Amino acid sequence: MQSTFYKYTGIEDMLKFRKMYRDKYGGVCELSQIYDVIIIGAGVVGSAIAREFSRYKLKIGVLEKELDVCCGTSGRNSGVLHAGFTYKTGSLRAQCAVEGNTEFEKVAEELDVPFKRTGKLVIGFTDEDMQSLLKYKALGEVNGVKGLEIIDKERLCELDSSAGGEFAMYSPATGILNPFAYTVALAENAKQNGVDFYFNNEVLEVKRENDIYNLLTGKDKYQARWVVNSSGLNSAVISTMLGIDGYTIGGFKGEYFILDKKVGKHMNMPVYPAPDSKGGFGIHATPTVDGNILIGPSSELTKDFEDYGVTSEVLDNLIDKGMKMFKPFKKEDFIRSFSGIRPKRIVKGTRQTLDFVVETREEVPNVINLVGIESPGLTGALPLARRAIALFAEKEKLISNEKFDPIRKGIVCFSDQSNEVKKELISKDPNYGEIICRCEGITKAEILEAVHNCLGVDSMTGIKNRTRATMGRCQGGYCQTRIAEIIMEENNKTREDLVYSRVGSYMFKGKVRE
Amino acid sequence: MTVIKKDVVIIGGGPAGLAAALQLRNRGITDIIIIEREKQLGGILRQCIHDGFGLTRFKETLSGPEYSQKFIDQVEELGIECITGTTVIDITSKRKITAVSRKGLLEYEARAVVLTMGCRERTRGAISIPGTRPSGVYNAGVAQAYINLHNTMVGKEVIILGSGDIGMIMARRMTLEGANVKAVFEMQSYPSGLPRNIQQCLNDYDIPLYLSHTITNIKGQSRLEGITVSKVDEKFKPIPGTQKDYTCDTLILSVGLIPENELSLAAGVNLDNRTKGAIVDENYQTSIEGIFACGNVLQVHDLVDFVSLEAESLANSMADYISDGKLPECKINITTDANISHTIPQKVSGKKDFKLSMRVRKPLKDCEIDVIQNKVVIKTVKLKKAIPAEMIQIKIDKTKIRSLGEIEVVVVVR
Amino acid sequence: MIKKYTCIVCPNGCEIEAFIEGTTIFKIDGATCSKGKEYVKQEIANPQRNIATSVYVDGGDLPLASVRLSKAIPKDRIFDVMNEIKKVKLTAPVKIKQIVIENVLNLGSDVIATKIIDRIV
User: Fold this and answer.
1) What is the rounded CA–CA span in Å between residue C33 and residue A267?
2) CB-CB under 8 Å, B49 with C114
3) In chain A, what residues touch C115 (CB-CB under 8 Å)?
4) With helix as H, strand as E and coil as C, how does C20-71 read?
5) Where are the beta strands (DSSP E) in B24-103?
6) How far is B304 from chain A (nearest CA, A)?
7) What is the CATH topology of the domain spanning B123-255?
8) Could you give the residue ranges of the DSSP H alpha helices within A373-509?
């Protein structure tokens, strides 16, 4: 992928640049120091805040309880860049969605992440649906969304022949992106600009002494002048820990199906049902930027914020609703299912959802508190980050970091290249000629780059999220053994050390023969 | 970019590809290349270290590696060209093949192509087992590769879902290596694999087999901690109230094999929805001229001896194709009744003897399989028992076939 | 009394019935070939099994060489034989049919390699 900010003169140049880039931005930082800002939570919002803060001369650290970025809600959604037509006018949701939507071409270019402004169809079947569409079209226009139009069945079919519906609202501003790629890119850009990331560090206790916050995690102690709470599902808990009590997060769990890429080519853009009276979308069908289709999500209240299991009752319902949105839907095209939990800020004891919170409080100095960030958190991540920094700037002068570089390069996708480029890549680096993930066409060169990522993540799912390896129809049946071997070899890990995704998710019980 | 012209390109150097290459050579075809993505030839047999291979062909009971080595030795002796560590990434309907290896990108143009890519395993995701996503859930073939090829033990307290041969083989393999295999659960009311494997892999080691059961929940936040099983009814729906919990750290899935036909689809080959493999005629030629298929990529086999025979039959037809430029048209379709899952081939010319491969859909006793054309029974096979796990092969004489009229294969239960 | 067996000699898996009185076998029914009859007789007298497993290889292109037994051994000695096999450390190269343990535990069966392992320098 080429960016307008750095144009390669050829393959040789590209590989040289990337090696220099890796050598320059890799590296380990020392542990004992007082940070200017510590950010709790490395989801898309936390990573965006880290990246935006790194524009300034500040020592920034991020504490994340899992072993990688993007493990919570950020990685468990439809991957949609929302236009902003369902949110209350003037709300943070509405503002951040529209802002984030408008600027995303530039962001995707800077961070080298895949993005398609596909448009979106919100389909309807009944008179009630039409009323709903008209309502949200009007709301969208007030919010600043461009190009919304009500279209008939003929135009609907033209735009996407696989979509159901008698009529629809077409939103040309909506787009799709890969939430993993985006979060990883934000985090890597932050890291290359000097931010430290600490994984497996769940914040357990916070104490303020002598104007310094002392954060105790399961692994270590950290000190910072400012703390940013961007911990998603745990944001109410962390908020209380920091001294701002009274928030309630309701966990609304949603389950999804992923369909094979074979059917992915039948769908051009997300197809959603007309929203209900509260603006909530039901189960929808969304093509992913990588070519799969997602059917979902459902919505059930859950008290267990760690329960990402999928249930058979919900899956049956998804099949039923999914068929309405996406006509060619067949059960045999399933690859897998997954779930996410929306951290909605609610009025305690009810299901009434409230707006995002991005605040500071006089009585709790130097804390920037983000609570209840769910959809459109992905779309609004950078606008939210800028608002967080604006709150910092109210109290302290921001000095520009002249070394800040907004450009971050992702891993080159071999299978996207022409045969000529493929040939050149292999001749410069034979690792491009060794296919590791057969279903997605991922080469050893890409796996190696992922294994040596600058954040130091090397769980199996960490490699999966950076390359798409194991995401194909065989789900790692061919490549998993090879990726495991590469991780162990490159990072000098024993079989017992190798982890699948979360802390404690060991993969093996040692050798068969010593 | 220079395109290399070849008479025959064989995609996949497992038992099917190797046998096809040798028979082509026997028929005088020398301009052959086998393209294999692993570093060594042998295909899936490399990891099938148990015996039971070669009983009909070599009258010996060999392990997988020994069986394939017999073919590899001959291929080497005859100097048949092979490239390993090379993955085919594309094939067109004009038989243009693109492959990559550490050495670079290669393009071939073949007069004939043999598709022998084998199959992949059905996954947990594809059958949507509810529950969490801990580590410790492995497909049987993957566990087998880890244990037999990578010297890696995947777990200690094991539950197996699926009584297919590979699941039962792994039950025994893991027990021998000190694991505690607690049970095998099978959704059907009969075992999916061969009876001899129930005896020598399960009964021998006191591993219980529960039929009509399936897993309804997977538990564990990081590593697998346990599973819930339920009994199922005839429609495979869990029966409420029959749930039972088991603790375990490893779940091995043996829930079916799917022919790996992504490349075939790229070439425009038509697949049979029942087998997920190509629709072929008596020559094993697919819907695309010059592209042939055999082995597990065509239909999932239970005995490698039959794979080798199928490949040799393909090679004989291909040799005729190369010397004559084409093969007689196959217009006679073969259909089945509801008792039979599929037949290979799906169409014939009527001008050639051919071998019909088929499977029954459920276990049958004392049955008769009739091959009927134009209301006339052209062949009958009587069987004391027939099970889905065992492929049935029926030889059909060309003299019995009319030039017109669909052939129907039916089961008559006495 | 009638005892039922599934023969494991070949994939047919014939279901064989043996009519036994005390230690005398009166009749064996259901075997398609003579091997089946022999198998059942052996099962009654002293069940025998073959096993397939792996041994560690040093300096080879693969870490393990697969092995099996040249002849079946008594079923109740399987894990004793496994323990002997676990102790073995081979050095590459390894040839097929190479004897890894001769006459293991004096049971009249050799442990033989079933895979070629090349030496890597």
Assistant:
1) 59
2) yes
3) none
4) EECCEEEEEECCCCHHHHHHHHHHHHCCEECCEEEEEEECECCCEEEEEECC
5) 32-35, 51-53, 62-63, 81-83, 87-91, 96-101
6) 21
7) FAD/NAD(P)-binding domain (3.50.50)
8) 381-395, 419-428, 444-451, 460-467, 480-490
CA distance B331 to chain A (A): 30
Do you know the residue count of chain B? 414
Active site residue A284: no
Residues C31, C73: one domain? Answer: no
Q: Are B211 and B186 in contact (CB under 8 A)?
A: yes
Is residue C118 in a domain?
no
Give the ipTM of the model, two decimals please. 0.93
Domains of chain A, each with CATH number or no CATH: 10-30+414-514 (no CATH), 115-175+250-345 (3.30.9.10)
CA torsion A487-A79-A383-A57 (nearest 10°) is: 10
pLDDT in tens, chain B (414 residues): 689 999 999 999 999 999 999 999 999 999 999 999 999 999 999 999 999 999 889 988 899 999 999 999 999 999 999 999 999 999 999 999 999 999 999 999 999 999 999 999 998 877 778 888 899 999 999 999 999 999 999 999 999 999 999 999 999 999 999 999 999 999 999 999 988 899 999 999 999 999 999 999 999 989 999 999 999 999 999 999 999 999 999 999 999 999 999 999 999 999 999 999 999 999 999 999 999 999 999 999 999 999 999 999 999 999 999 999 889 999 999 999 999 999 999 999 999 999 999 999 999 999 999 999 999 999 999 998 899 999 999 999 999 999 899 999 999 987
Helix, strand and coil percent figures for chain A, each rounded to 5: 35, 25, 40
Terminus-to-terminus CA distance in chain C, angstroms? 62
Expressed in percent and rounded to 5, the helix, strand and coil fractions of chain C are: 25, 40, 35
| Residue of chain C with shortest Cα separation from B59 | C10
Residue where the block lists tokens 């025959």: B8
Kindly report whether the peptide bond that precedes residue A376 is cis, defined as omega within 30 degrees of 0.
yes
Residue A307: count other Cβ atoms within 10 Å of its Cβ.
14
The C-alpha atoms of residue C35 and residue A258 are separated, in whole angstroms, by 51
DSSP string for residues in A266-284: T--S-EEEPP-TTS---SE
* Among candidate residues A265, A255, A351, the one with its CA nearest the CA of residue A312: A255
Contact B89 A415 (CB under 8 A): yes
Model's pTM, two decimal places?
0.92
Q: Which of A148, A172, A144 is nearest to A87 (CA)?
A: A144
**CATH fourth-level superfamily of B1-121+256-327:** FAD/NAD(P)-binding domain (3.50.50.60)
Question: Are B121 and A477 a contacting pair at CB < 8 A?
Answer: yes
Beta-bridge partner residues of A227 = A38, A367
Residue A200 and residue A396: Cα distance in Å, rounded?
A: 31
